[in-house]
User: What shape does this take?
Amino acid sequence: MKRLLLLSALALAGCDVHTPSPRYAFAPMYLLDIAPERLLGTWYEVASFPAPFQDGCSHTTATYGAIEGGLSVVNQCRRGGQTVQITGTAVPVGPGQFKVKLGGVPFAGDYWVIGQSRDGRTLLVGTPTRLAGWMLHRDAHVTEAERRWAAGVFRKNGYDEAALQRTDQR
Assistant: This one.
């Protein structure tokens, strides 16, 4: 019985899409102090360390609008041929740090801006746990050089760059 439980636990552990390396557990994250108004508009997720709630998603976008005290959030993707979305708010709580509260989710998440390209068209967002992270871009596609730059920034912030997955935007 113990052997069966151990095998079951190992099998379930193998189902996790991205598990941060323990060697990065206490590594610093380098946050970018960004004004919320620079985030306004629609961003396309072009790559990610997907969060479990994103399973099966493609054509993922995040749209931010201005509200008093922060940003409105509309996250949208295609799953199983259907467009699904969730709405919420993002409140700045420190330089490059936002508390994001999404409808139907019982807790607010910590989302940290860890990079932005020189032209401002690519944004990198991570979480302090490094369980999820997103490469967002103003267009649906990025160059390989932009993707390599993003992978390097994620690596510097304690992510396993080999786990960065392209998001289908076709």
